[in-house]
Structure formats: structure tokens, C-alpha cells
């Protein structure tokens, strides 16, 4: 029996040669932007000029979010106690991302499901939006990518990404279907505003470029990395290295619900 061998289509390294999706790495260095490299490694082919611009725009979507996103406090807490390891702080920030915030993956999966439903049933955008929404609501799931507590009138990042998507010719049926679903949701709420947020619009832009939703959560991480890295270094260099812990403790509104103070029974005391 032939011995099993590891396989990858991403890259190859041998003496004197490094290939990324078939291209010598030295040719990519200085000729491709980081956004183009990401597209190449994920898709296996070079992006068009417009796809490269859109990818670059998406990568700046969530550069930083102050102390509101859990990634920043998590990263700063870790290096406040371990300033010798900035990478540990960055790792902590990354581990706090996804799920609730900072990940377009769930929105991307939703968009792809809705789009397949529309195509398989030969529906118009409005018909698909109405019918898919009914099906999705029956599952009692929250629709991802809608609304933002700090941007109830419209997420400025999402607005900008949509403008660029249209400008670069990326915007297509998937985005319009997602927007049609958003309109139906708003109608069901009696006109209450619930605009598409940055995670949702990042997902729409990436879906239009046929980026698999499995990549999208990681794209959120890459987008957030500059902010996390900078917060980590700022915390390490801060003259008040324990400032974040002190600040958190001073504002901590917590209640202890355990037993009242008590002492060990005499039979447990040995010394």
C-alpha cells in the first residue's frame, strides 16, 4: 500500500525556491499588495484591479474599535501582566474575535443561503427576500449583519464599503438580495431603522467576489490586527502598565454571591 502523503495546493518550498499558488514568492514581493496576496492565497488566482481595490477596502473595515470590542481589553490585559510577550497579547485579542463581533462569516453564510434559495426557486429579489425571511424566522434565528448599537442611523463603515463596491463594479445580486431582506425586516418592525452593519457589508462584498464564508471570519481578524497590535504595544510602553486593570477595577460594578466570610474548622488546621 502506498504511504499516505500530505497535500496542499497553496504553496511549495524546496531548496532555492518558494512558490505561492504556483508563483515564485520573489516575484510577488514588491509587485502585489497585501490585499492581492490574500486574494491569491484564498482564491488561487490573481485578483482583477477592481477586486484588489475592494479587498483592500474590506481589510480596513474594522481597523480599530476603541475599548468597545472585547479584543482590545483582552489584548491589553494580557500584556499588562506579560509585557515581554506582545504576541501573547495579540493572540488574546484574536481569540476574543468572532461569533458576536468582528466576524463577517455568519452574515456571509446567510447571504449565500439566501442567494442559493433565490436561484434554485427562480425567484425575483423581492420574492426571494420575502420567502426566505419567512423560512429563516421559522428557525427562530437572528438575522446577522443588521443593526449596530452605536450607529442606529447607519454604520459609516458599511456605507463607505457599499459606495466602493458600486464604484468598483463589485456590487451585484447578492448585495441587492441582502438589502431587499433588510428592507423586509425594517417593514416588519414598523419602519424602525435597522441598517446593515460593517460585518454584513463586508460579507456582501466578499460574497460578490466568491470568497468562501469560512475565510470571512479570518478576514475580520486580519482587518482588526493593526488596531490590536497597536493597542498591545501602547499598553507595554505605557508608564502606568497596570492602568487598564486599575481602570477596570474602579469601574467594576459586580456583586459577590458566594458564602459570607468563614474560617476553617479546627480539625483542618495543622499548623
Task: Give a quick summary of the entry.
The chain is mainly α. Helices cover 55% and strands 4% of the residues. A 3-stranded antiparallel β-sheet has the order 1-2-3.
Write the layout of secondary structure elements.
Layout: E1 11-14, E2 17-20, E3 23-24, H1 25-28, H2 34-43, H3 49-59, H4 71-81, H5 86-95, H6 105-120, H7 125-138, H8 156-167, H9 173-188, H10 198-208, H11 213-237, H12 243-251
Antiparallel strand pairs: 1-2, 2-3
Q: What count of helical segments does DSSP give?
A: 12
For this structure, what is the CATH homologous superfamily of the domain at 105-213? Answer: Cytochrome P450-Terp, domain 2
Number of strands: 3
State the shape.
globular
What are the salient characteristics of this protein?
4% strand, 12 helices, 3-stranded antiparallel β-sheet, Cytochrome p450-Terp, domain 2, mainly alpha, globular, 55% helix, 271 residues
Characterization of the model:
The protein has 271 residues and is mainly α. Helices cover 55% and strands 4% of the residues. Among the domains are: 12-47, no CATH class; 105-213, Cytochrome p450-Terp, domain 2 (Orthogonal Bundle). The chain has a three-stranded antiparallel sheet. The longest helix is centred in the last third of the chain and has 25 residues, at 213-237. It starts with 10 loop residues before the first strand and ends in a 20-residue tail after the last helix.
